[in-house]
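Box S2. Input/output pair 1.
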Amino acid sequence: MEELHPRRDLSHNPLFQATFALRNTPTLLLELPGLTAQDFEIGSGIARVDLHLFFVVESEATLRGWLSYNTDLFDALTINRMAGHFQMIVAAMVANPN
């Protein structure tokens, strides 16, 4: 931040406004005698950046993902349309991996 001297504006992150994350490491469940543990996501309900796309690899054949977004900038219709575009891109990549 000291080197870049970005224009500061409290309405958005000064370095980036969109993020993409992929968790492709196995989830290890805690095993304790007499207890059953289950993995679940806890959301804060707050978008830390304007647009965040997050994926979790659940198995070799399963990828689960979601978007969080700033509702002051995007409405649900726009996000659904963006998600549909992303699905089309992924389908094209799977159909032609080269």
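Box S3. Input/output pair 2.
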Amino acid sequence: MSKLDVSNHIHRTVGEVVQKRIDFLKTGHKMQDLPEELWHESFKFYMNDPNRKGGPNMRIIRLDPNKPSLTVTGFIFNKFVHPRENRFITVREAARLQDFPDDLIFEGSLGSTQQQVGNAVPVRLAQAVLQSLTHALHKSGKLQTDTLNALSLFSGAGGFDVGAEQVDANGMKIQTTLCVDNWADACKTLSGYFKGRAKVVETDISQIEDPATFYLLESAQTALPDIIYGGPPCQSFSQAGKQKSTFDLRGNLVYDFIRFVNSIRPKAFVMENVSNIKGVQEGELLKELIKAFQKAGYATDAKILTAADYGTPQTRRRMFVIGIREDLHVRPGFPVPTHSMMPSLLDQPYSTVGQALSDLPQAVSNSLKSQGEYAVEMQ
């Protein structure tokens, strides 16, 4: 795909009030930097009552081209303003901030494609974690192959999966053979990217009674996978959510991830979630997760990682729980950061928004009338 023909690169035309906000914003400015007459109504309540929660319009910000972006979410349509142009960023620009390659085409409505990008693991962060895990498996000396087959759960649009394809640890690589999700648009996106290199199955993971048999039938493999990776949906654990999580892991999709690990018993696993899971119920939930993996026979560790530390132009922070089966007698380890805000001889400077967006062609404008669910402009 040429730079003149980039998919998902359409920006919204907004209403008069919102455009005035955008036009007024300088680099790094947010809603509170606007004249009060341009504040969103929810933001006025927020300013008068710090305990009140405002809507996504509170978070409008013009990106700084010389820094990594804040966390990309599904609300880029009314949050991130382009660093130099007076418009919100496009899905493709958000995808660049998540390290997605331009040849991965996001399928579905504008809202769906925005959510697919916002929900994904940054590709370089996924690659760094899987690279470190693969290096540890290589050190065990007990593997008879240079290709590790992988099962991807809760795959979404494929941030983990694209990262897995980029792993090369002393010649040892990862081949994802099966991806599973129940989101039709995301499955179509990922199928288009893989082009047959991996099978993508749209189904509800919680309804799969025998994970091992399911994998063998759907993947057409003769052996179970070496690695399982994925990020169970995390709304109940996020700071924006109501945190209705519970010690009883059976009430969460994280339990299904554990159930798959117990059934298939891969050599290693990686489970990703929001960083706030560490604070849920004073850390007891995370302790229960680690205890469950250890009971299943895995040397397990957990750590919050920042995507910018591994080359992503974004300060997204995520929790990773990793494990290696104890009979392999190696400990899992996390990757050493490769980038820093204060670079030295050992690391590189943070990647920036300006670098990520620099070579994209001009975005195509679209009118509100063609935006479907986004046709009602928030004033």
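Caption for Box S3: The mean pLDDT is 88. The longest strand covers residues 173-181.
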